[in-house]
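User: My collaborator sent over this chain with a note saying "see what the structure looks like." That's all I know about it. Can you take a look?
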Amino acid sequence: MATSPIMIGLAGLGRAGWGMHCEELKGREEQFRYVAACDLLEDRRKAMAERFGCAVYGCIEEMIADPNVELVCVATRSIDHFAHVKMALEAGKDVFDEKPMCVTYEEALALKAIADRAKGTLYIRHNRRFEPAFQHIREIIASGLLGEVYEIKLRRVGYGRRDDWQSLLAFGGGQLLNWGPHIVDHSLRLLESPVKSVWGDLKRIAAVGDAEDHLKIVLTGENGRVVDMEISGGAAISEPEYLVWGTNGALSCDERTITLKYLDPTVPLLPRAADPGTPGTSFGSPEMLAWIQEVIPVNPALPVNTTSIWDYLYRTIREGEPFPITLDEAVGVMQVVSAVKAGTPFEITGAVVV
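Assistant: Without extra context I'll predict from the sequence alone. Here is the result:
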Protein backbone atom coordinates (compact mmCIF):
# COMPACT_ATOMS: atom_id res chain seq x y z
CA MET A 1 0.00 0.00 0.00
CA ALA A 2 1.44 3.36 -1.04
CA THR A 3 2.06 5.87 1.72
CA SER A 4 3.02 9.52 1.58
CA PRO A 5 6.54 10.70 2.45
CA ILE A 6 7.17 12.21 5.87
CA MET A 7 7.40 15.99 5.57
CA ILE A 8 10.55 17.27 7.29
CA GLY A 9 11.49 20.66 8.66
CA LEU A 10 15.25 20.67 9.26
CA ALA A 11 16.61 22.95 12.01
CA GLY A 12 20.29 23.67 11.48
CA LEU A 13 22.13 23.42 8.15
CA GLY A 14 25.66 22.78 9.37
CA ARG A 15 27.76 19.64 9.57
CA ALA A 16 24.97 17.49 10.98
CA GLY A 17 21.97 18.93 9.15
CA TRP A 18 23.43 19.69 5.72
CA GLY A 19 26.35 17.29 5.82
CA MET A 20 24.65 14.25 7.36
CA HIS A 21 20.85 14.43 7.34
CA CYS A 22 20.57 15.76 3.80
CA GLU A 23 23.15 13.33 2.42
CA GLU A 24 21.68 10.30 4.18
CA LEU A 25 18.24 10.87 2.67
CA LYS A 26 19.49 10.54 -0.89
CA GLY A 27 17.52 7.65 -2.38
CA ARG A 28 14.87 7.86 0.33
CA GLU A 29 12.74 10.49 -1.39
CA GLU A 30 9.67 8.24 -1.31
CA GLN A 31 10.00 8.06 2.47
CA PHE A 32 11.09 11.59 3.40
CA ARG A 33 10.76 15.04 1.85
CA TYR A 34 12.23 18.36 2.98
CA VAL A 35 9.46 20.95 2.98
CA ALA A 36 11.15 23.51 5.23
CA ALA A 37 14.47 24.36 6.86
CA CYS A 38 15.93 27.06 9.05
CA ASP A 39 19.38 28.45 9.74
CA LEU A 40 20.84 31.73 10.92
CA LEU A 41 23.04 32.03 7.82
CA GLU A 42 21.51 33.28 4.59
CA ASP A 43 23.89 31.39 2.28
CA ARG A 44 22.92 28.10 3.91
CA ARG A 45 19.22 28.87 3.54
CA LYS A 46 19.74 29.73 -0.12
CA ALA A 47 21.60 26.47 -0.80
CA MET A 48 18.86 24.45 0.89
CA ALA A 49 16.09 26.16 -1.07
CA GLU A 50 17.95 25.63 -4.36
CA ARG A 51 18.65 21.97 -3.66
CA PHE A 52 15.28 20.88 -2.28
CA GLY A 53 12.86 23.58 -3.38
CA CYS A 54 11.66 23.93 0.21
CA ALA A 55 10.63 26.91 2.30
CA VAL A 56 13.45 28.42 4.35
CA TYR A 57 13.35 30.47 7.53
CA GLY A 58 15.77 32.52 9.60
CA CYS A 59 14.40 31.28 12.92
CA ILE A 60 13.12 27.96 14.18
CA GLU A 61 9.86 29.43 15.51
CA GLU A 62 8.73 30.29 11.98
CA MET A 63 9.68 26.89 10.64
CA ILE A 64 7.85 25.02 13.40
CA ALA A 65 4.76 27.11 12.66
CA ASP A 66 4.81 25.96 9.01
CA PRO A 67 1.71 23.73 8.66
CA ASN A 68 3.46 21.55 6.07
CA VAL A 69 6.08 20.40 8.59
CA GLU A 70 5.27 17.02 10.10
CA LEU A 71 8.65 16.03 11.56
CA VAL A 72 11.15 18.53 12.97
CA CYS A 73 14.75 17.32 12.71
CA VAL A 74 16.84 19.14 15.31
CA ALA A 75 20.45 19.48 14.15
CA THR A 76 21.40 22.70 15.93
CA ARG A 77 24.21 23.15 18.45
CA SER A 78 24.05 20.80 21.41
CA ILE A 79 23.26 23.53 23.94
CA ASP A 80 20.10 24.43 21.96
CA HIS A 81 18.61 20.94 21.68
CA PHE A 82 16.48 21.19 24.80
CA ALA A 83 14.78 24.46 23.83
CA HIS A 84 14.27 23.48 20.19
CA VAL A 85 12.91 20.01 20.95
CA LYS A 86 10.59 21.40 23.62
CA MET A 87 9.31 24.06 21.23
CA ALA A 88 8.56 21.54 18.48
CA LEU A 89 6.88 19.02 20.80
CA GLU A 90 4.66 21.67 22.32
CA ALA A 91 3.63 22.69 18.79
CA GLY A 92 2.39 19.15 18.21
CA LYS A 93 5.20 18.04 15.88
CA ASP A 94 7.09 14.77 15.84
CA VAL A 95 10.79 15.39 16.57
CA PHE A 96 13.95 13.60 15.45
CA ASP A 97 16.64 14.92 17.79
CA GLU A 98 20.30 14.70 16.80
CA LYS A 99 22.60 13.46 19.54
CA PRO A 100 23.17 14.52 22.22
CA MET A 101 19.55 14.41 23.32
CA CYS A 102 20.34 17.54 25.35
CA VAL A 103 23.24 18.52 27.63
CA THR A 104 22.21 17.32 31.12
CA TYR A 105 20.30 14.49 32.74
CA GLU A 106 17.85 17.01 34.21
CA GLU A 107 17.06 18.29 30.73
CA ALA A 108 16.62 14.73 29.49
CA LEU A 109 14.11 13.95 32.23
CA ALA A 110 12.24 17.17 31.43
CA LEU A 111 12.12 16.39 27.70
CA LYS A 112 10.79 12.91 28.40
CA ALA A 113 8.06 14.38 30.60
CA ILE A 114 7.14 16.86 27.85
CA ALA A 115 7.15 14.08 25.23
CA ASP A 116 4.95 11.86 27.41
CA ARG A 117 2.17 14.43 27.36
CA ALA A 118 2.73 15.85 23.86
CA LYS A 119 0.74 15.06 20.75
CA GLY A 120 3.96 14.49 18.82
CA THR A 121 6.61 11.84 19.47
CA LEU A 122 10.27 12.35 20.30
CA TYR A 123 12.88 10.14 18.61
CA ILE A 124 16.61 10.28 19.42
CA ARG A 125 19.18 9.83 16.67
CA HIS A 126 21.56 7.28 18.19
CA ASN A 127 22.36 6.15 14.66
CA ARG A 128 25.57 4.35 15.60
CA ARG A 129 23.43 1.73 17.30
CA PHE A 130 23.35 0.36 13.75
CA GLU A 131 27.10 0.22 13.06
CA PRO A 132 27.84 -3.14 11.37
CA ALA A 133 30.75 -3.91 13.73
CA PHE A 134 28.63 -3.21 16.82
CA GLN A 135 25.84 -5.42 15.51
CA HIS A 136 28.22 -8.25 14.57
CA ILE A 137 29.95 -8.20 17.95
CA ARG A 138 26.61 -8.38 19.75
CA GLU A 139 25.73 -11.41 17.64
CA ILE A 140 29.01 -13.14 18.56
CA ILE A 141 28.51 -12.42 22.26
CA ALA A 142 24.94 -13.75 22.11
CA SER A 143 26.12 -16.94 20.40
CA GLY A 144 28.12 -17.94 23.49
CA LEU A 145 31.26 -18.59 21.43
CA LEU A 146 33.40 -16.59 23.86
CA GLY A 147 31.81 -18.07 26.96
CA GLU A 148 30.71 -15.66 29.68
CA VAL A 149 31.85 -12.19 28.66
CA TYR A 150 33.27 -10.38 31.67
CA GLU A 151 35.00 -7.28 30.24
CA ILE A 152 34.65 -5.14 27.13
CA LYS A 153 36.83 -2.24 26.02
CA LEU A 154 35.59 0.41 23.57
CA ARG A 155 37.90 2.97 21.99
CA ARG A 156 37.50 5.94 19.66
CA VAL A 157 40.76 7.85 19.75
CA GLY A 158 42.94 10.15 17.65
CA TYR A 159 44.91 13.36 18.01
CA GLY A 160 43.76 16.81 16.93
CA ARG A 161 43.99 20.40 18.21
CA ARG A 162 40.29 21.05 17.77
CA ASP A 163 39.23 24.71 17.73
CA ASP A 164 35.56 24.89 16.66
CA TRP A 165 32.47 25.26 18.88
CA GLN A 166 32.74 21.60 19.85
CA SER A 167 35.72 22.63 21.97
CA LEU A 168 33.68 25.16 24.00
CA LEU A 169 31.56 24.33 27.04
CA ALA A 170 29.26 27.31 26.40
CA PHE A 171 27.85 25.53 23.34
CA GLY A 172 27.73 22.02 24.83
CA GLY A 173 31.08 21.07 23.36
CA GLY A 174 33.48 18.38 24.48
CA GLN A 175 33.94 14.75 23.55
CA LEU A 176 31.49 13.50 26.17
CA LEU A 177 28.60 15.22 24.38
CA ASN A 178 30.07 14.69 20.89
CA TRP A 179 31.26 11.10 20.43
CA GLY A 180 30.15 10.30 23.97
CA PRO A 181 26.42 9.62 23.43
CA HIS A 182 27.24 7.04 20.75
CA ILE A 183 29.80 5.12 22.77
CA VAL A 184 27.93 5.44 26.06
CA ASP A 185 24.90 4.01 24.26
CA HIS A 186 27.08 1.13 22.96
CA SER A 187 28.44 0.59 26.47
CA LEU A 188 25.00 0.40 28.06
CA ARG A 189 23.77 -2.05 25.43
CA LEU A 190 26.89 -4.23 25.78
CA LEU A 191 26.69 -4.18 29.58
CA GLU A 192 23.42 -6.14 29.29
CA SER A 193 22.59 -5.29 32.89
CA PRO A 194 21.43 -2.46 35.11
CA VAL A 195 24.37 -0.22 36.01
CA LYS A 196 25.88 -0.88 39.42
CA SER A 197 28.60 1.78 39.36
CA VAL A 198 29.99 4.54 37.13
CA TRP A 199 33.52 5.91 37.25
CA GLY A 200 34.86 8.55 34.92
CA ASP A 201 37.78 10.86 34.26
CA LEU A 202 37.81 13.90 31.94
CA LYS A 203 40.80 15.86 30.66
CA ARG A 204 41.64 18.51 28.09
CA ILE A 205 44.78 17.42 26.23
CA ALA A 206 45.04 18.86 22.73
CA ALA A 207 41.89 20.85 22.02
CA VAL A 208 42.29 24.61 22.36
CA GLY A 209 38.93 25.43 23.97
CA ASP A 210 37.80 24.81 27.54
CA ALA A 211 35.93 21.51 27.01
CA GLU A 212 37.28 18.01 27.58
CA ASP A 213 38.81 16.16 24.63
CA HIS A 214 39.86 12.99 26.49
CA LEU A 215 37.66 10.80 28.63
CA LYS A 216 37.55 7.42 30.27
CA ILE A 217 34.40 5.82 31.70
CA VAL A 218 34.16 2.47 33.47
CA LEU A 219 30.71 0.96 33.92
CA THR A 220 30.11 -2.07 36.14
CA GLY A 221 26.88 -4.01 35.74
CA GLU A 222 24.90 -5.80 38.37
CA ASN A 223 25.81 -8.93 36.39
CA GLY A 224 29.51 -8.31 37.15
CA ARG A 225 30.43 -7.34 33.61
CA VAL A 226 32.74 -4.33 33.14
CA VAL A 227 32.69 -1.98 30.14
CA ASP A 228 35.72 0.30 29.83
CA MET A 229 35.35 3.07 27.23
CA GLU A 230 37.74 5.79 26.09
CA ILE A 231 37.26 8.65 23.66
CA SER A 232 40.17 10.93 22.95
CA GLY A 233 41.31 13.75 20.75
CA GLY A 234 44.68 13.61 22.46
CA ALA A 235 45.87 10.04 21.82
CA ALA A 236 48.63 9.76 19.22
CA ILE A 237 48.57 5.93 19.09
CA SER A 238 45.27 4.11 18.82
CA GLU A 239 43.90 0.82 20.16
CA PRO A 240 41.32 -1.58 18.66
CA GLU A 241 37.86 -0.07 18.59
CA TYR A 242 36.51 -3.15 20.39
CA LEU A 243 38.15 -5.70 22.68
CA VAL A 244 35.94 -8.37 24.25
CA TRP A 245 37.15 -10.89 26.85
CA GLY A 246 35.17 -14.00 27.74
CA THR A 247 35.78 -17.15 29.76
CA ASN A 248 36.28 -19.20 26.56
CA GLY A 249 37.95 -16.67 24.28
CA ALA A 250 38.24 -13.11 23.09
CA LEU A 251 37.89 -10.84 20.09
CA SER A 252 39.28 -7.57 18.86
CA CYS A 253 37.77 -5.48 16.12
CA ASP A 254 38.50 -2.52 13.95
CA GLU A 255 35.95 -1.05 11.59
CA ARG A 256 36.18 -3.83 8.97
CA THR A 257 37.59 -7.03 10.52
CA ILE A 258 37.13 -9.10 13.66
CA THR A 259 40.00 -11.17 15.09
CA LEU A 260 38.82 -14.15 17.16
CA LYS A 261 40.62 -16.56 19.47
CA TYR A 262 38.46 -19.10 21.27
CA LEU A 263 38.58 -22.60 22.68
CA ASP A 264 37.42 -25.28 20.24
CA PRO A 265 33.90 -26.10 21.49
CA THR A 266 34.21 -29.66 20.16
CA VAL A 267 37.21 -30.43 22.41
CA PRO A 268 36.23 -30.97 26.08
CA LEU A 269 38.48 -29.53 28.75
CA LEU A 270 40.13 -32.14 30.95
CA PRO A 271 39.35 -32.04 34.69
CA ARG A 272 41.82 -29.98 36.71
CA ALA A 273 42.12 -29.24 40.42
CA ALA A 274 44.29 -26.80 42.34
CA ASP A 275 47.33 -28.52 43.91
CA PRO A 276 48.24 -27.20 47.39
CA GLY A 277 51.57 -29.06 47.38
CA THR A 278 55.07 -27.66 46.96
CA PRO A 279 55.35 -26.46 43.35
CA GLY A 280 57.93 -27.66 40.87
CA THR A 281 59.85 -25.50 38.44
CA SER A 282 56.83 -24.68 36.25
CA PHE A 283 53.90 -22.42 37.04
CA GLY A 284 51.27 -25.14 37.42
CA SER A 285 51.07 -28.28 35.32
CA PRO A 286 51.32 -27.93 31.53
CA GLU A 287 48.14 -28.02 29.45
CA MET A 288 47.61 -27.97 25.70
CA LEU A 289 44.49 -26.01 24.91
CA ALA A 290 42.71 -26.39 21.57
CA TRP A 291 42.55 -22.82 20.35
CA ILE A 292 40.85 -21.66 17.17
CA GLN A 293 42.10 -18.39 15.72
CA GLU A 294 40.51 -16.64 12.76
CA VAL A 295 40.07 -13.25 11.18
CA ILE A 296 36.65 -12.61 9.68
CA PRO A 297 35.14 -9.61 7.91
CA VAL A 298 32.58 -7.50 9.73
CA ASN A 299 29.37 -8.89 8.28
CA PRO A 300 26.45 -9.04 10.72
CA ALA A 301 23.48 -11.30 10.07
CA LEU A 302 21.31 -8.19 10.39
CA PRO A 303 22.41 -6.06 7.41
CA VAL A 304 22.43 -2.51 8.79
CA ASN A 305 24.51 0.64 8.69
CA THR A 306 24.33 3.99 10.44
CA THR A 307 21.76 5.33 7.93
CA SER A 308 19.38 2.45 8.68
CA ILE A 309 17.93 4.55 11.48
CA TRP A 310 15.92 6.46 8.84
CA ASP A 311 14.25 3.24 7.69
CA TYR A 312 13.31 2.40 11.26
CA LEU A 313 12.02 5.95 11.75
CA TYR A 314 9.85 5.72 8.64
CA ARG A 315 8.38 2.35 9.61
CA THR A 316 7.65 3.66 13.09
CA ILE A 317 5.86 6.82 11.94
CA ARG A 318 4.04 5.38 8.93
CA GLU A 319 3.57 1.71 9.85
CA GLY A 320 3.44 1.79 13.63
CA GLU A 321 6.48 -0.38 14.32
CA PRO A 322 8.26 0.22 17.65
CA PHE A 323 11.26 2.52 17.34
CA PRO A 324 14.36 0.53 18.41
CA ILE A 325 15.78 3.36 20.55
CA THR A 326 13.54 4.09 23.50
CA LEU A 327 13.39 7.40 25.32
CA ASP A 328 14.32 5.61 28.53
CA GLU A 329 17.51 4.35 26.85
CA ALA A 330 18.37 7.84 25.63
CA VAL A 331 17.72 9.30 29.09
CA GLY A 332 19.98 6.58 30.52
CA VAL A 333 22.79 7.79 28.27
CA MET A 334 22.39 11.32 29.61
CA GLN A 335 22.35 10.00 33.18
CA VAL A 336 25.83 8.53 32.64
CA VAL A 337 27.04 11.72 30.92
CA SER A 338 25.91 13.91 33.80
CA ALA A 339 27.29 11.52 36.43
CA VAL A 340 30.74 11.67 34.83
CA LYS A 341 30.69 15.46 34.47
CA ALA A 342 29.44 16.14 38.00
CA GLY A 343 31.93 17.98 40.17
CA THR A 344 34.47 18.44 37.37
CA PRO A 345 35.55 21.68 35.63
CA PHE A 346 33.59 20.42 32.61
CA GLU A 347 30.20 20.23 34.30
CA ILE A 348 27.54 22.20 32.42
CA THR A 349 25.52 24.37 34.80
CA GLY A 350 22.78 26.88 34.35
CA ALA A 351 20.87 24.86 31.76
CA VAL A 352 17.24 25.99 31.78
CA VAL A 353 14.65 23.30 32.49
CA VAL A 354 10.99 24.36 32.43
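A starting point for your reply to your collaborator: The chain has two domains: 6-129+306-326, 132-297.
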